[in-house]
Amino acid sequence: AQSVTQLDSQVPVFEEAPVELRCNYSSSVSVYLFWYVQYPNQGLQLLLKYLSGSTLVKGINGFEAEFNKSQTSFHLRKPSVHISDTAEYFCAVRSQGGSEKLVFGKGTKLTVNP
Amino acid sequence: DGGITQSPKYLFRKEGQNVTLSCEQNLNHDAMYWYRQDPGQGLRLIYYSQIVNDFQKGDIAEGYSVSREKKESFPLTVTSAQKNPTAFYLCASSSRGLQETQYFGPGTRLLVL
């Protein structure tokens, strides 16, 4: 079985500052990794995903994430955040064999202050 | 426009009442999912269906039921056996395959009167 730990439940930053949202996973098999964003009272939208190949993945809205197999991490980064990036961010994992179910972390609420 | 619609946006349930949440997709996806979201808990899988007329329990299926009679539709019934139904419910769909992205609807917020 897989599990996902998002190390920070809340991250406050100032506008134009860099941000990193941390995600660690646990799995006995290889995995696919996903980051989703949720704006208040809305559904989730895919930011980016890692399937294979380059460990640095670029997504929408200027976000990127780096897959680190040895540290079982998939941290999300943005070099300069905007007020509009205020949202909740979810990391998710799926095993490369077996069930198509996604396992989600508990989320990190990013608040960008002026 | 292709997408996933959920209705209603808000739903109120009285004690002992069953209520049904609607989820429709026009993305031609085979797989559909229902999640429950509580504050600080992330998303937990209730039921999923990989093909018409077939569905499987997720991690928290007790007190819920589903049907999948059409490819486009995957309604969720919250039964009176679900003692704590207040939550935000999200429906998702995807093509089959482990690399495929799940796409989400806008959600239904269920409140208990």
Structural class of chain B: mainly beta
Strand content of chain A: over 45%
Helix content of chain B: under 10%
Shape by Cα distribution of chain A: globular
Shape of chain B: globular
Largest beta-sheet details of chain A: 6 strands, mixed
Q: What is the mean predicted local confidence, pLDDT of chain B?
A: 93
Give an account of the 3D structure:
In chain A, the strands form three sheets. In chain A, strands 2, 5, 6, 10, 11 and 12 form a six-stranded mixed β-sheet that branches. In chain A, strands 3-9-8-7 form a four-stranded antiparallel β-sheet, with no helix packed on it. Chain A has no helices and twelve strands. Chain A is mainly β and 114 residues long. By secondary structure, chain B is mostly beta strands. Chain B contains no helices and eleven strands.
Q: What are the main properties of this structure?
A:
heterodimer, A: mainly beta, 6-stranded mixed sheet, 4-stranded antiparallel sheet, 12 strands, 0% helix, B: 113 residues, mainly beta, 11 strands
Explain briefly what this protein structure is.
Chain A is an all-beta fold.
SSE topology sketch:
The complex is a heterodimer of chains A (114) and B (113).
Chain A: E1 3-6, E2 10-14, E3 19-21, E4 23-26, E5 31-38, E6 44-50, E7 56-58, E8 64-68, E9 73-78, E10 87-95, E11 103-104, E12 108-113
Parallel strand pairs in A: 2-12
Antiparallel strand pairs in A: 1-4, 3-9, 5-6, 5-10, 7-8, 8-9, 10-11, 10-12
Chain B: E1 4-7, E2 10-13, E3 19-25, E4 31-38, E5 42-51, E6 54-57, E7 64-66, E8 76-78, E9 87-94, E10 103-104, E11 108-112
Parallel strand pairs in B: 2-11
Antiparallel strand pairs in B: 1-3, 3-8, 4-5, 4-9, 5-6, 7-8, 9-10, 9-11
